[in-house]
Design a protein that fits this description.
The chain is of the alpha+beta class. The protein is 22% helix and 36% strand. It has helices spanning 45-53, 81-84, 101-106, 120-126, 142-154, 172-189, 200-206, 224-228, 231-238, 353-359; strands at 10-18, 21-29, 34-38, 60-65, 68-72, 77-78, 86-90, 160-164, 193-196, 209-214, 217-223, 243-254, 259-264, 267-272, 281-287, 292-294, 305-316, 323-330, 346-352, 366-371, 376-381. The strands form four sheets. Strands 7-8-9-3-10-11 form a six-stranded mixed beta sheet, sandwiched between helices. The chain has a five-stranded antiparallel beta sheet with strand order 2-1-4-5-6, with helices on one face. Strands 14-13-12-15-21 form a five-stranded antiparallel beta sheet. α5 (142-154) runs parallel beside α6 (172-189). 37% of the residues are buried.
Length: 382
């Protein structure tokens, strides 16, 4: 009697001793959600994934799938990698050259007590590789090999998916469609998924939550829009691209001007025309250096977007620094009850110290945030 694996959460608490770095982190990922581990390349992020998968030893900790403990240093529980059923996918996931595409897809499905969540032919059609099941891996492009490796991981009937910078080896031009496909996997297969990536566009497109690891410790954790819109971490994670991430819904397409309108907190944001249908959930990335602040709605400006809000924080880069950050909480409608506002949505602008002081920006001041439609980066969201 075969059994399909039931969705279970993944709980990880690990201590690792790396060269010159003691890593301690913990996180929990629910089925159908993705948690991104982010930080500098030397932060030990990939090693955390490898230790969770059982590929390298941990110094201590505990890992559980639902109520089933697969690693507990105190209780001396340490399941081998092949019994943990944590699918691993990285940029270096090789295919077996002596097997066909179909042979590679089904290679890891050996345990007859476990059944994949999907049929190999259905999955091959979704991956757009059904027409090449008899091909040799040597006949495939880099993108096609990635699709096969992803299919093999999913057909192993995993309880969770571990992604170690899986798109790193692909040319930038080929990443977008694969990233969109990869973003569908957690909910399509109801898998808790952990992503390690140095590219924030991949984190924005895929992750629900994120954990920042700095010098071996968790510096912050929370929902992606919350963390990436925090001025304290923006420049640390994204450098000159630092800014805010807003979630919204596609409300209108203007065919005449090739523009789309996104609802954010009950306010409209105009962006270059997108292919997302009406009602689609999307995320908008706004660079802090692309925003301008106004005390009143400007009458003569080339910026097509003006969001109303209230200044909540002003931070200067030192007493004599040349720039600073102004944090704004966006205005939005009350809930249907009329008396319970939704959680605040923040964005921040990087301005010169001179502009901040001359405009007199201070917490509590109403303001209008302006930016051009071309300044927005739109990413699909579940």
């Amino acid at each position: 009697m075969t059994a399909r694996p039931l969705p279970r959460s993944l709980s990880v608490e690990l201590r690792l001793q790396l060269t010159g770095l003691d890593v301690r982190t913990q996180f929990r990922v629910l089925p159908g959600r993705t948690c991104a581990l982010v930080g500098h390349e030397a932060a030990g992020l990939s090693e955390v994934l490898r230790a969770a998968a059982g590929l390298i030893p941990a110094r201590g900790g505990r890992i559980a799938l639902g109520n089933e403990v697969i690693y507990d240093s105190a209780a001396k529980v340490n399941w081998p990698a092949h019994k943990r059923h944590l699918a691993w996918l990285s940029a270096q996931s090789p295919l077996l050259p002596h097997l066909s595409v179909k042979g590679n897809l089904t290679y890891r499905h050996r345990d007859t007590s476990r059944t994949p969540r999907t049929d190999v032919h259905d999955l091959a059609r979704w991956l757009d590789i059904a027409h090449m099941l008899d091909h040799s891996p040597t006949q495939l492009t880099h993108a096609q090999r990635f699709r096969v490796a992803l299919g093999r991981a999913l057909l192993s009937a995993p309880h969770a998916l571990l992604l170690d910078d899986p798109l790193a080896a692909l040319p930038a031009a080929e990443r977008a469609p694969l990233l969109s496909m990869l973003a569908e996997v957690p909910r399509r297969c109801q898998l808790p998924t952990v992503l390690v990536s140095t590219r924030m566009d991949e984190v924005i497109a895929m992750a629900d939550d994120m954990v920042i690891i700095h010098e071996g410790r968790t510096a912050s954790a929370g929902a992606v829009p919350q963390i990436l819109s925090d001025v304290s971490f923006g420049t640390f994670l994204d450098g000159e691209q630092a800014g805010s991430v807003l979630e919204g819904e596609v409300k209108r397409h203007d065919i005449d001007w090739l523009l789309s309108e996104i609802d954010v907190c009950g306010q409209r944001v105009t962006v270059p025309a997108t292919l997302f249908p009406l009602g689609s959930k999307v995320r908008l990335k706004l660079r802090a250096r692309d925003l301008s602040l106004h005390k009143e709605m400007p009458a003569d400006t080339s910026s097509s977007n003006h969001l109303r809000g209230i200044v909540t924080q002003v931070m200067l880069a030192g007493e004599h620094g040349s720039y600073g950050a102004v944090v704004v909480a966006l205005d939005h409608a009350l809930d249907f009850s009329g008396d319970s506002p939704r959680p605040p949505v923040h964005l921040w602008a990087m301005l010169t110290r001179k502009a901040i002081q001359q405009m007199g920006w201070a917490p509590g001041h109403p303001c209008v945030v302006g930016f051009k439609a071309m300044a927005t980066q739109v990413t699909g969201w579940h």
